[in-house]
Amino acid sequence: MMLMRALSSPPFRNYHVWWSLADSKYAGTALFVKKCCLPKKVSFSLDQKASKHEPDGRVILAEFESFRLLNTYVPNNGWKDEETSFQRRRKWDKRIIEFVVQSSDKPLIWCGDLNVSHEEIDVSHPDFFSAAKLNGYVPPNQEDSGQPGFTLAERRRFSGILKEGKLVDAYRLQHKEKDMEGGFSWSGNPIGKHRGKRMRIDYFLVSEALKDRIVACEIHGRGIELNGFYGSDHCPVSLTLSQASSGPVADADES
After folding, report:
1. Per-residue pLDDT tens for 49-64?
2. Can you give the pLDDT at residue 5?
3. What is the helix (H) or strand (E) element at residue 174, kind and residue range?
4. pTM here?
5. What is the rounded CA–CA span in Å between residue 134 and residue 250?
6. 91-103 as b/e, with b when 16 or more CB fall inside 10 Å?
7. DSSP three-state, residue 44
8. CB neighbourhood size of 129 (10 A)
9. Is the distance from CB of 80 to CB of 140 less than 8 angstroms?
10. Residues identified as active-site
11. Coil/strand/helix, residue 244
12. Chain-centre distance of CA 13, in angstroms?
């Protein structure tokens, strides 16, 4: 009831919203689009069948006249070579690389929690995350060792997705240097061993055809006290693009 009341009040009543949910407590994605510029089609799976939702509500795909917007909550890699951990993530990455290659007929904007920190610059403490273990367990394959989201296996597959999909990391394109204060979108619990340990795992990736239209891409949380995180362990990330032929700008937010 509170949610529906909020959605019927400014500024949200000026938006149309789509949901893809697992349940009220786990996973799911949402997409808000101003009613003045609604997409031609919205689907909820990587195979673009509107009636089919991905397990756990992990995908919303909106097709506009001149581009596609993909909003995802990527499965966490987990700690072990099990069906719900390494194997699930490998299958997801395989499906994503197939999707970005097959969808190259139109520019893509891909946003969301991608659950990977691509390079060492994308984590606050690389040695800490590289050495992380769960209950002392060491995977058989050394490339699967470390904090989920920062294993070599995940990072190499992500490099492959960027290359094959001809995608550009909008934030890193504009921010070349490590920013220990505001360069991370996820932060560990401020109490305990993860205090101050942070990762950049939320992204805007855009097709190379849109690279020159990036005006700004910003992370809106700062510091180990989680300013701008609004009660979550993730903070908002925003992307601003100029319109074609240097017209007005378009804004998007991922949180």
Report:
1. 666 888 899 999 999 9
2. 80
3. helix 170-174
4. 0.92
5. 43
6. ebbeebbebbeeb
7. strand
8. 21
9. no
10. 73, 113
11. helix
12. 25
Question: CA-to-CA distance for 78 and 151, rounded, in angstroms?
Answer: 10
Distance of CA 147 to the CA centre of its chain: 17
C-alpha dist (Å) from residue 167 to 157, 215, 240: 13, 16, 16
51/2 Cα distance (integer angstroms): 28
Residue type, 49: K
Sign of the four-CA dihedral 21, 16, 40, 110:
negative
Closest by CA to 74, choosing from 112, 104, 34, 48, is 112
The amino acid at 74 = V
Position with higher pLDDT, 226 vs 50: 226
First-to-final CA distance of the chain = 22
Distances from the Cα of 224 to the Cα of 115, 186, 189, 198, angstroms: 20, 10, 9, 8
Question: Quick one: tokens of 210?
Answer: 């849109």
Confidence tier at 247 by pLDDT (50, 70, 90): very low
Phi, psi at 249, each rounded to 5°: -100, 155
CA 35 to chain centre: 24
Residue whose pair of structure tokens reads 């966490």 in the numeric block: 76
